[in-house]
């Protein structure tokens, strides 16, 4: 078996938010638009997104399972669940450890709230590159601009407005993509068809001036682009997105997008931003591990299928249909069904049983899971959350997850 997706086309991401900002709704819409679920609810049959969600729940497949795989434009997106409640701080940290990038959801009426501050600080601690989704743009009092300002002021971040909302509150209809100078509208109830149009007359001047500012801002974030910009070169959108991506991965900025997941508007541009701007496992630095018998002997794990296996179990879930599922991320090597691996901390050998990839609407059995990927395994007896799995001849432990005092803001 070979890889279905090259490693640079993986995005291991989390939807990060405090409770009530719309994390569940946004996740559900992402799974809906990533296509695998279209056949469940069809407009022709008069079913709606909500019906689809109810059906999913009845079938017992949880949409927000520990990790769900989706596909968008030739990219594999593994969505890792990050709990939003403050009580689950340790759990939030554990999930932040396995993801490479995040989408932080804000309520457009509230902007930054105390709990969004907590999750933001945690994501900072784990160097998780982030883009922002200003959700609930349909609500009375919603403001994209004020929300971005609160991200700047309360989080000390560098948010970048990538869009201009078209219409506001109950009249919110679409967005202007500032770089592309195009308008996008959602005219059907499910928001399936994203319609591209010219920027509306009343926003044209603003869109042009914002583009000039945006180009300057992006150019300033990247040394190579700065030089070319100062030499008067006309930078293409591809160059700008490339430079912006480097800046996002380096934690220098947080591009912001507008939408309302409940009313099915704005999710597709957010998915485009996920693949354009968030890192692949190749973009992150090597993962640290240490020898089991000597903590001072550091080992670096590279996202390479041919290296010895290094995997981290980040969540155990008892699934009513299949049993005890251990969700894991492979940092290096290839995990194969039937393989014997070592849990070095417990000193136990484990046989890799069924390997399962979870989609929103199905589970696929796979024979192998490659470096950089996330899946679940059945049959582990002595392995728990936070445990490493590695090859027996070269035991090491992935850097332990520390749980410092949570940062509680007032
Ligand atoms: P979570 O706690 O972050 O997972 O938030 P949910 O997705 O459960 O949403 C919390 C509440 O906000 C629910 O009542 C949703 O229906 C509502 N909600 C989510 N997104 C939107 C939105 O775009 N607009 C409006 N008006 N309500 C929303």
TrEMBL record:
Keywords: Cytoplasm, Elongation factor, GTP-binding, Nucleotide-binding, Protein biosynthesis. The keyword GTP-binding applies. GO terms for biological process: ribosome disassembly. It comes from the Bacteria. GTP binds at residues 17-24, 81-85, 135-138. It is found in: Cytoplasm. GO terms for molecular function: GTP binding; GTPase activity; translation elongation factor activity. Residues 8-282 form the Tr-type G domain. The keyword GTP-binding applies. GO terms for cellular component: cytoplasm. Catalyzes the GTP-dependent ribosomal translocation step during translation elongation. During this step, the ribosome changes from the pre-translocational (PRE) to the post-translocational (POST) state as the newly formed A-site-bound peptidyl-tRNA and P-site-bound deacylated tRNA move to the P and E sites, respectively. Catalyzes the coordinated movement of the two tRNA molecules, the mRNA and conformational changes in the ribosome. Belongs to the TRAFAC class translation factor GTPase superfamily. Classic translation factor GTPase family. EF-G/EF-2 subfamily. This is Elongation factor G. It comes from Flexilinea flocculi. The lineage of its organism: Bacteria, Bacillati, Chloroflexota, Anaerolineae, Anaerolineales. The chain holds residues 1 to 410 of 691 of the full protein.
């Amino acid at each position: 078996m070979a890889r279905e997706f090259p490693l640079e086309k993986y995005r291991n991401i989390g939807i990060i938010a405090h409770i009530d900002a719309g994390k569940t709704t946004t996740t559900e819409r992402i799974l809906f638009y990533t296509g695998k679920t279209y056949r469940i609810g069809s407009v022709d049959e008069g079913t709606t997104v909500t019906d689809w969600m109810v059906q999913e729940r009845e079938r017992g497949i949880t949409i927000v399972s520990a990790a769900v795989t989706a596909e968008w434009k030739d990219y594999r997106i593994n969505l890792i669940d990050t709990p939003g409640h403050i009580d689950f701080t340790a759990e939030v940290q554990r999930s932040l450890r396995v993801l490479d990038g995040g989408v932080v959801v804000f309520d457009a009426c509230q902007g930054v709230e105390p709990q969004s501050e907590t999750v933001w600080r945690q994501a900072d601690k784990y160097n998780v590159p982030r883009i922002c989704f200003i959700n609930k743009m349909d609500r009375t009092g919603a403001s994209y601009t004020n929300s971005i300002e609160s991200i700047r002021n309360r989080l000390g971040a560098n948010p970048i407005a990538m869009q201009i909302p078209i219409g506001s509150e109950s009249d919110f209809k679409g967005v202007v993509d500032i770089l592309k100078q195009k308008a996008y509208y959602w005219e059907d109830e499910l928001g399936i068809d994203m319609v591209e149009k010219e920027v509306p007359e009343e926003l044209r001047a603003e869109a042009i001036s914002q583009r000039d500012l945006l180009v300057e801002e992006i150019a300033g974030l990247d040394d190579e682009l700065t030089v070319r910009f100062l030499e008067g070169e006309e930078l293409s959108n591809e160059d700008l997105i490339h430079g912006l991506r480097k800046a996002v991965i380096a934690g220098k900025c947080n591009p912001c997008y507008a939408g309302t997941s409940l009313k099915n508007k704005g999710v597709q541009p957010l998915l485009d931003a996920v693949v354009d701007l968030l890192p692949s496992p190749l973009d992150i630095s090597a993962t640290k591990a240490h020898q089991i018998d000597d903590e001072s002997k550091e080992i670096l794990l590279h996202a390479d299928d041919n290296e010895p296996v290094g995997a981290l179990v980040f969540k155990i879930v008892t699934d009513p249909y299949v049993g005890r599922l251990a969700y894991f991320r492979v940092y290096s090597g290839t995990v194969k069904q039937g393989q014997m691996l070592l849990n070095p901390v417990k000193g136990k050998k484990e046989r890799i049983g069924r390997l399962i990839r979870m989609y929103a609407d199905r589970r696929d059995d796979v024979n192998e899971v490659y470096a950089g990927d996330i899946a679940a395994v059945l049959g582990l007896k002595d392995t728990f959350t936070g445990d490493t799995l590695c090859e027996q001849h070269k035991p090491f432990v992935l850097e332990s997850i520390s749980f410092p005092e949570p940062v509680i803001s007032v």
